[in-house]
Automatic annotation (TrEMBL):
PROSITE patterns: PROKAR_LIPOPROTEIN, THIOREDOXIN_1, THIOREDOXIN_2. Pfam families: AhpC-TSA (PF00578), DUF4369 (PF14289). InterPro entries: AhpC/TSA (IPR000866), DUF4369 (IPR025380), Thioredoxin-like_sf (IPR036249), Thioredoxin_CS (IPR017937), Thioredoxin_domain (IPR013766), Thioredoxin_ResA/DsbE_sf (IPR050553). The lineage of its organism: Bacteria, Pseudomonadati, Bacteroidota, Flavobacteriia, Flavobacteriales. This is AhpC/TSA family protein.
């Protein structure tokens, strides 16, 4: 029995050292020298990046408290009346303490959240790389000004290494911490980077822990990645010289018509994405009628792809056919009557009117022309 007693005591001590498991969070804040009654806000960012308060606390005797629940560790931003700026906080269901610096909110310290510690580690390292990069960039510029070839050469080597380090660090960090919800915030920042490497981003996302991917934020990021990759592919598929993506859709009589059936009949073919509800499209139609009447006998074909079927249209097919008749559009027409459908997506069409000119083999030879520019291009190709 005497031998068992130390083992029991050790077990009790070990269990008491484990982090408390909670299903809610509590943030105990201290705000030194802040007047009673000052309001503190916990905010989420909306789709435009604007803060939206989700909870409010009032400072009393230098203290305030937030209580709540999160489905998974989430990023919030704390603001306080009378203090500029905001504090990023990774909140998770645990007990946390927050020491607020009212003069410089960014100097405030949150303790108790592993997710927040991880985000802080990432930002600290990232900022250090940026500082080093700025220093070396200045040194390189100074060496260029002084025509110091020796330092120019050495600074350039360091500069290139730091640039590579800066580009790779977010990806390396995500890969190292693939089981943490914190990396979703880093993913989101990478999605805003110009010319982001989306295939690499997708691979990293696919390798995340399943528990991270199935969160609402994970699902949203996955959707953005997939939509952006599809858009990139569509841009490649509709570049000048590319073979136009194939498609077929019902004509006004319900018969399927393929784009290949149209461009094979003429020397050039205009694909015109439009809709009965689209004012700019309807204003462009007289110009198209004029061009078609003038050049159809010389080998011009047109196929109108209607994007009617948007929410609120009472009878999309009726509106489509009436617009064809009213505007005297005597060429080929097709529509799935489902607004910006798969055809529009495959051509990376996000706004209408949008036009593509194909040769008799289906290769794209011009696009995004309207008015006089379209007329001149058709004349150049057929005269």
């Amino acid at each position: 029995m005497k031998k068992l007693l130390p083992i029991i005591l050790i077990g009790i001590m070990m269990s008491s050292c484990q982090k408390e498991v909670r299903t809610d969070y509590i943030i105990e804040g201290t705000a030194k020298d802040v007047y009673n009654g000052i309001r503190v806000y916990l905010n989420e960012l909306d789709q435009r990046g604007r803060p939206v308060p989700v909870d409010t606390a009032i400072v009393l005797n230098g203290s305030f408290t937030f209580n709540g629940k999160v489905p998974y560790p989430k990023l919030y931003f704390l603001t306080m009346n009378g203090s500029p700026g905001r504090i990023p906080l990774m909140i998770e269901n645990t007990k946390m303490t927050l020491d607020v610096d009212k003069k410089i909110l960014s100097n405030s310290i949150l303790s108790g959240s592993d997710s927040h510690d991880l985000l802080h580690e990432f930002n600290t390292t990232l900022n250090k790389i940026k500082e080093d990069l700025n220093t070396v960039s200045k040194n390189y510029s100074d060496a260029q000004f002084l025509r110091d070839s020796v330092n120019m050469k050495s600074d350039k080597v360091v500069l290139e290494k730091l640039q590579e380090k800066l580009a790779n660090y977010p990806f390396d960090f995500i890969e190292e911490h693939s089981n943490s919800n914190t990396v979703l915030e880093i993913f989101q920042s990478q999605l805003r980077v110009a010319n982001a490497d989306y295939p690499k981003i997708k691979t990293l996302f696919d390798n995340l822990d399943q528990s991270v991917k199935i969160t609402q934020k994970g699902i949203t990021i996955k959707s953005i990645i997939e939509q952006t990759i599809a858009k990139i592919e569509a841009q490649k598929n509709t570049a000048i010289g590319a073979i136009a993506p194939p498609f077929s859709a019902p004509d006004p009589e319900g018969k399927e018509l393929a784009i290949s059936e149209v461009y094979s009949k003429g020397k050039i073919t205009i694909i015109d994405f439009w809709a009965a509800w689209c004012g700019p499209c309807r204003r462009e139609n007289p110009n198209l009628v004029k061009i078609y009447d003038q050049y159809h006998d010389k080998g011009l074909e047109i196929i109108g792809v209607s994007l009617d079927g948007r929410r609120g249209q009472q009878n999309p097919k009726e509106a489509w056919i009436k617009a064809i008749e009213d505007d005297k559009l005597t060429w080929n027409h097709v529509s799935n009557l489902t607004y910006f459908d798969k055809i529009a997506q495959s051509y990376n069409v996000n706004a209408i009117p949008a036009m593509f000119i194909l040769d008799d083999k289906g290769a794209i030879i011009a696009k995004n022309l309207r008015g006089k520019a379209l007329e001149l291009k058709v004349a150049e190709l057929l005269n």
